[in-house]
Structures are given as C-alpha cells and as structure tokens.
Amino acid sequence: xxxxxxxxxxxxxxxxxxxxxxxxxxxxxxxxxxxxxxxxxxxxxxxxxxxxxxxxxxxxxxxxxxxxxxxxxxxxxxxxxxxxxxxxxxxxxxxxxxxxxxxxxxxxxxxxxxxxxxxxxxxxxxxxxxxxxxxxxxxxxxxxxxxxxxxxxxxxxxxxxxxxxxxxxxxxxxxxxxxxxxxxxxxxxxxxxxxxxxxxxxxxxxxxxxxxxxxxxxxxxxxxxxxxxxxxxxxxxxxxxxxxxxxxxxxxxxxxxxxxxxxxxxxxxxxxxxxxxxxxxxxxxxxxxxxxxxxxxxxxxx
Length: 302
Ligand code: C5P
Hints:
- With 302 residues, the chain is of the alpha+beta class.
- It has helices at residues 81-93, 115-130, 137-147, 191-196, 233-239, 241-252, 274-284; strands at 12-14, 18-36, 42-60, 65-70, 99-104, 159-163, 168-172, 179-185, 257-260, 267-271, 290-295.
- The protein is built from 7 helices and 11 strands.
- The longest helix has 16 residues, at 115-130.
- The model is unreliable at 216-225 (pLDDT under 50).
C-alpha cells in the first residue's frame, strides 16, 4: 500500500550482513535550459521528483572493496559510478576504501530516470554510514557533483528544485500528487548527445497543465519554473519521433501532463485518478517495444 506521509531519506532496512538502501528513480517535472557555462555544461532550472521505484544497494563490512551486480549487464570495475563514488569518497575522507556492495538493478539504463546518478549518491550515503564518518549532506555534495550533474539531487530525494548544472539543490517538502505512467523504450538516449544539439534561442513549447495535486508548499511557489516544459524534447523528438507519439498517446488517454523526463528516453504521463493511469498503462503496454511502469511520487522529511 502506498504511504503518502513524508519519511526520512533514504529508505533503509537492516539485512543479515549489513543494511540495504533503496536507490530511487526521479523524473523532471520541468527542465529549462537557461544558458551555457564556459565549461560546456548548460545552466538549468529544473524540478526533480523522486518516485517509488528503486534499485537496491546492500552495504556489508569487508576488508576489501567489492561490488556485485544483479539484474543488469554492467561493469563492476572503475567504469561503474558506484565504484567511482566509493573511491572518490575514500580519498576525500582519507580512509581505506572497503565494503561489500551488492546492487540489485531494476531501473533502466540511459532512461532519463537517473538510475546511475542515484546509485552513486546512495553509495555516498551508504558508505558514510558503513564507515561511520557522519558527514552531512552538504559535505557530500562536492563529491556527488563531480560524479554527475543529477547526482546531488539523490542525496536529498523527495521533491526539489535545482539550478546551476542541475546540481544546486533546494529540497522542498511535499510531493506531486497523482499517478505517473512511465513509458520506457528499449533504447536509451545519451545525455551528452542531447545537450550537444542545444541551440539558442530555444523554441518555446508552453504546455497548458491543468492539475490540482501539486503541494502548495512545493512547486506552486516556484512560479518561474513552469511545469511541464522540457527544453530537450524538441531535440530528442526530432531524432526519435516515436517518443513524441507516446507523449501524445498519453494525453489522448487522459493524462493532464505528458512530457519526456531528463534527456529521455522515458516519457511519462501524470493522471489524477488511479484507474485512468492503470487503463493508460494497459493500453500502452500492448506496444511490445516499450516497458510501462505506474509510479507514485514520494515526499521526504526536510
Ligand atoms: O553530468 P553528467 O555526466 O550526467 O552529464 C553528461 C553530459 O551531459 C555532460 O558531459 C554534458 O555534456 C551534458 N550536460 C550539460 N549540461 C548539464 C548536464 C549535462 O551540457 N547541465
């Protein structure tokens, strides 16, 4: 049963040999590109929302560092963001890098739901506990930032706005209401490619969102951050028109908001009523070339 009351981040469970942290997915309720920095990164104004869909990482004591992965064919060496997070944290804290980490992967790769960044940030939070370092989240932020622009958000979870490269986080209380239908194509979109195609000035694609379930303490106050706009959509939809077809189909099926998350390839629809979301999910899952997932948004204690 879904529990809408805010809880502590991240979700933690003791296990036989250590503890397990959930490593959640996010979507962007808005993603505006407002400029380009000298380092090539783009300046963003975005709204992140954590979802109740997650990988899991188990953290156990061990003299050496080792990572196992279930559920995806991913490297478990220095190419993996979890390993890079562990090494960077050990260096910054000047402690030996140790621990047995077991990742159970369910989130899609290159899907625009932040799976890799989430794993990296949760690794920092988990090792902080395993190594009993007691660093606060502000101290972890610079390490997270170096691992990826989406990474700092996952130190806080819940609902948040972000500026800078998407890495300057303002955590908010509350969460979006409603039911998210995520449509995940079998292919991913490379973030660097999508951003490399950005040309200013951007074409405005304003969307008329009629949705009453956003918290008054949250997004409602952020008037500058228009809900429902993703400035990467035009670029990504040009190369993958089928993603725009999915967006339109979600609207036809009754979504009050439908957009791409991050740089894609995930496209989601937001429904006020569960039955409508379930019906849309059922319709869309007839298409064999996509995966469909219905999610709720999570609120965190601030
Ligand atoms: O930070 P992350 O590794 O997720 O970003 C992948 C790529 O996306 C960057 O190398 C950069 O080319 C692009 N990017 C950008 N502006 C952002 C975030 C990412 O140009 N704010």
